């Protein structure tokens, strides 16, 4: 199922990349928070979206990308472990509201985060953002969260993999 969702996300995004009118591409870096801070020390990734202007100051579209969490040593029930790196590919609907009198915006991506690591399930993906926008680029601060389960020593542990991210996106025309 993961492979089908992953293939569908890349096919959709690849098809949208041909038009380029509302295409934006960029990247982010961040600090893991919540359960993710137990397993990861740093996160980075790439972002992509295709947006359509639906109403004055409001855009709606599709978003995808990749978020990579760098593993670290951690303790669980008194034992020390080293977590492997893990990552997620979000497939989401994206909404963005730009304020008319100021170059700022609020946005929300909502969808599913596909895990690319065995033993870590995908789950609900959400990323609210607040940012500064110019004609050809935007800077944002966002809180990315993926609800997930992780296999660990014969246990299934519910996790909320979150990160506070700083990102930049460029509009391609």
From TrEMBL:
<protein>
    <recommendedName>
        <fullName>Outer membrane protein beta-barrel domain-containing protein</fullName>
    </recommendedName>
</protein>
<feature type="signal peptide">
    <location>
        <begin position="1"/>
        <end position="19"/>
    </location>
</feature>
<dbReference type="InterPro" id="IPR011250">
    <property type="entry name" value="OMP/PagP_B-barrel"/>
</dbReference>
<keyword id="KW-0732">Signal</keyword>
């Amino acid at each position: 199922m993961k492979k089908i969702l992953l293939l569908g996300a890349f096919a959709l995004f690849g098809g949208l990349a041909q038009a380029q009118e509302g295409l934006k591409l960029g990247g982010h870096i961040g600090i893991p928070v919540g359960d993710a801070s137990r397993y990861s020390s740093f996160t980075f990734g790439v972002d992509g979206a295709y947006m359509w202007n639906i109403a004055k100051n409001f855009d709606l579209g599709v978003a995808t990308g990749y978020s990579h969490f760098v593993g670290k040593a951690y303790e669980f029930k008194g034992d020390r472990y080293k977590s492997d790196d893990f990552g997620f590919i979000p497939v989401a609907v994206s909404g963005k509201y730009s304020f008319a009198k100021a170059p700022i915006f609020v946005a929300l991506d909502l969808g599913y985060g596909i895990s690319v690591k065995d033993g870590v399930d995908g789950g609900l993906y959400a990323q609210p953002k607040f940012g500064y926008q110019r004609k050809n680029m935007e800077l944002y601060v966002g809180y990315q969260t993926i609800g997930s389960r992780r296999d660990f020593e014969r246990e299934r542990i519910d996790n909320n993999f979150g990160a506070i991210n700083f990102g930049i996106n460029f509009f391609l025309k």
